Amino acid sequence: MASGTCVPRLFLACLVRSAAGVAALAATVAVAEEDAADRFRTRVLPVLQENCFDCHGWGAEEGGLALDVDPAAGAFLTDTETWWKVLKNVRAGVMPPEGYTALPDEAKQSLATWVKSDVFGIDPHNVDPGPSAVRRLNRYEYGNTIRDLMGIDYNVEIEFPPDDSGFGFDNVGDGQSLSPMLVEKYLRAAQSIVDQAVPTVTRVIQHQEYRGRDFRSDDGSRRGERMSVDDEATVTRAFTLDEPGAHRVVVNAMVDGSFEFHPRRCVVTFSVDGQQRSQAEYGWQEKLKIEHVFDEEFEAGEHTLTFSVRPLPLAEGDQEEDDFSNEPHHAHYFVRSVKVEGPLDPPKWQRPPNYQRFFTRDQPPSAPDERRAYAEELLERFAGRAFRRPVDAATVDRLAALAESVYSQPDKTFEAGVAHAMVAVLASPRFLLRADFPAGQRVDSTYPLVDEYSLASRLSYFFWSTMPDQELTDLAARGQLRESLDAQVERMLADDRSRRMVREFVGQWLRSRDVENVSIDALAALGLKEEYDEILEEFRRSFRGRRPRNRGANAQSPEEQARAREVRERFRELREVRDTFDGGIRRAMRDETDMTFEHIVREDRSVLELIDSDYTFLNEDLADFYGIDGVQGRRMRKVTLPQDSQRGGVLTQGTMLTVTSNPTRTSPVKRGLFILDNLLGAPPPPAPPGVPELEEAAEKLGEQQPTLREVLALHRESALCSSCHARMDPLGLALENFDAMGRWRDFDNGRPIDSSGNLVSGETFASVQDLKTILATSHRRSFYRCLTEKLFTYALGRGLDYYDVHAVDTIVDELDENNGRVGVLIRGVVRSDPFLRHRGDPAARVSARDDDQPPAATR
């Protein structure tokens, strides 16, 4: 009986203690809210009343924002979204708006401190690291990971569609999609990659394979990949054999052409070491495929393979070649490949390429239990590398069972079974997705660290866009990666693979990778399109006038012939202009931007050199394009700019100037938006519906060719447009001396260009050089903050939110104290709580029970 009454009493005692705890907690929260309200009234409200209430108080709600709400209302002090917008606008100088006195630095700091502490609830000693994003390997990461894991290159640009982006980067989980079509592509890719990379037999016949381009004439003028039936030619390829014995030679060739009635024929002879092995006559045939197979007995040493083409005389009655001169026609013999296989004697067969990458023994065991254990050993190692962490026993058991189901069949090898299981690994979500896990659970509200394997993956995909290498994995396995973090960061940055971070981060942040595909009409951008069209038509008329039938009375006069020569010369000039902005120039522009950032990283220089510097990276073609003398050769190299040069910094590089232009002209609006979004971190909101196009404003001016400055000034008169364009237009107009392709100009449509302007923050400038100076001094902290946020987004694979403000502010302060050295930025990101810690909430774990079943295509 006594024991029966003990449970209710114990339960009641616990309930009383719990109620007391809840009451105490509620009282603590109430006191905290009261203190927050008091701090708001004493520290923040006076600042808002003096600087913000004209638009956001005393009944005014500009933009739907009212700041004169009773601070006692709990929602007002916990509206993180609203206060984060307020904080960003104040820091960016957007608020107070143009025409009002700028907020003093002390007032900004007071507001920021209150928002971070009382609204965001940030504890500097226990910072919320934010959610750990689950993200899919983008196609660039997938390709690199496959190369390191499987030892082959997989053409991801052909096999996979372009990745979606979120917050400006294609490695952000929130922006990625995983459609059924993409899942199907991953399944096919897994099978294709394993087929290419993993041997399915223990021994194979050796072979050497040569393409048509490997066959050359003695003088090097001809190659076997394309030999005309009209011309006599001989091409040869030498090769060496280490082993004597029986071999097989397999020749693959093709005959093709572009004109059905090509009359000529030829004899093609194939010889081995000067001995004829085949001879056949060929003429035009559409894509005629040819294969010859010969068995040869070779000695060890050097040997030769030779193709000879001998044209045959035209048969009687065939048209002379001149009769076909006005029609495009040709026929060719194409050497596609010659493969030499052997020795054919089985004892001389060798282990397949890549065998040791996947298999640790020369031969699999014969006993069933030993074979199963060996399969488990191999698949545990492979899956651990692919999943980037140790694999549980249940997963290994299922993979080994899958392998056994194949290699136990009479006609299947052990290697084929293991390869089949590897397909399942590459199709697994644990390979395709990246998820981070905590090292433990939250203790006393402290956010746990990410485990060492998650840290290894974060580092490797941040710096190298690929899986962790062996050193990172070994350190993680020993639990020593975190303690050697600085040394590993230094090692990884020194590795050539860190260029991937430069190319991917800069390519998306500064849009340098877009320059190779952006549409620019060089003639239209230079105002030469109409002249080109007119000259082209006159050139065509002139060409028709020179045809042989225009003789005698129809012959051109000397004046017409002179004009025809002028037209041809001008047409060539305009065609050169049309082709000026070609792929070589575009690639050099991208390299210029990427190499500038890489130089700053390698030399640990100030990131402010991205805004303004006395150097850039050029080759001869790009230097000529920019009008810079003294650069010779195709190699990109660092070039010191003249003192009076307007170049220097990303704002004056061809990448930024081109990707922010329209196809036929510059766009000050796009250029200004680029600066606000990517350099100052203060993009304006999207344009409201119903905003008139610039062309409508141009029509109102009634001039023949108004300048863009005049058009934009009229456009800003619209109340819908004025606030945003007041911020964007001066920044973009400062770059008007650079045309749509990034070349310097002093005039536009015959009128001098005015690049002066006034910023909404109060500064004035006369040129782009002045603007760069302003951005690198007065607005340097905004640039530091923007760059830090962009790098965080890229490193974490997620967008930033209010809980990340402390981590960003800490790095911005350190950058300001260290003259913007990039090493401070990179180490700051890697050492930060968002990078090193985990919320401890259940990550979107990939099930270890369901995800490793073989895909339907491979069962």
Automatic annotation (TrEMBL):
GO terms for molecular function: electron transfer activity; heme binding. Residues 345-367 are annotated as: Disordered. The keyword rRNA-binding does not apply. Residues 1-32 form the signal peptide. SUPFAM superfamilies: Cytochrome c. Residues 647-746 form the DUF1588 domain. InterPro entries: Cyt_c-like_dom_sf, Cyt_c_Planctomycete-type, DUF1585, DUF1587, DUF1588, DUF1592, DUF1595. Transmembrane segments: none annotated. Residues 135-198 form the DUF1587 domain. Residues 374-435 form the DUF1595 domain. The keyword Transcription regulation does not apply. Residues 761-835 form the DUF1585 domain. Residues 451-628 form the DUF1592 domain. Residues 52-99 form the Cytochrome C Planctomycete-type domain. It holds the Pfam family PSD4. Keywords: Signal. This is DUF1592 domain-containing protein.
